[in-house]
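Anyone able to model this chain together with guanosine-5'-diphosphate?
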Amino acid sequence: MAGKKRFGLRLRELFSLGGQEDDFYEELEDLLIEADLGASVTMALVDHLRESRRSRDREGLVQALRELLLDGLAPAELNLDPQRLNVVLFLGVNGVGKTTNLAKCARWYQREWPQAGILLAAGDTFRAAAVEQLSLHAERLGVRIVRQGTGSDAGAVVYDAITSAQSRGERLVLADTAGRMHNRADLVRELEKIHGIIRKLTGSEAVYRKILVIDGTTGQNALRQAELFHEAVGVDAVLLSKYDSSARGGVLVPLQRSLGLQCGWLGTGESYEDLRRFSPEAYVDDLLAP
Ligand SMILES: Nc1nc2c(ncn2[C@@H]2O[C@H](COP(=O)(O)OP(=O)(O)O)[C@@H](O)[C@H]2O)c(=O)[nH]1
Ligand SMILES: [Mg+2]
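re: yes, here you go
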């Protein structure tokens, strides 16, 4: 959506126009939908603003919208425990940035937990070169990786990784997955299988979390993706990738309102340092900025 006028600017233009009330709310609805806020969130926001508009000026309306958008947003917490084994599974459709951001998380925890022992599990066995891509990250980062060849059983890779980390006393397993299978049913079946293996192996001894990676440039389709993964295995936190190249969409708002999913991090580039903790205030301010 590059080249398009920013949402915040169009919003202020709309707020400063005179015109008919009904036209105003219709255009506001269009604007909110285009900003990926989703139909139900848009309706709720417009209803709220409709009730409160009379007494407000332009910046007052932006401020009211800011408060409405912020309502309920909070940074996701994984509550990992450095005293125990933690298994973090990365989910998301093909190309969203799972592998890249998994590697950034490995770097993050190398710094946070220097003594932990971090292990990568090459659970994307579907796509050719996916194992190689993760192996390259492991080498660069200086962390261990458990891998098998393309086409092997992803569940077996994850099984090996967890049992290996348990026997070595490593505290963090970051497991990659394939975002694409021959069809949707295959993908869900594979994820359920991996999920079952992890649950069986970790029990109450370990912390098990699932991060859904959403591509910031995706727009409305992100909600459907999140529904798929959340229904299949449950999602604990969202990582919004490619925030650096996105049109600053509002997709995190419907993810929270409709599915109860909170974002924990923003991916802001392709290098290891390009991972930021999610701040609702900064995110909403950025969305509304003129
Ligand atoms: N600009 C930008 N590119 C990213 C980001 N995260 C991932 N990418 C790129 O997106 C592409 C797909 O990433 P990859 O991790 O292979 O996706 P996967 O298929 O989900 O594992 C690669 O070219 C990455 O470098 C990000 O936060 N910002
Ligand atoms: Mg990948």
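The chain has two domains: 7-70, 85-288.
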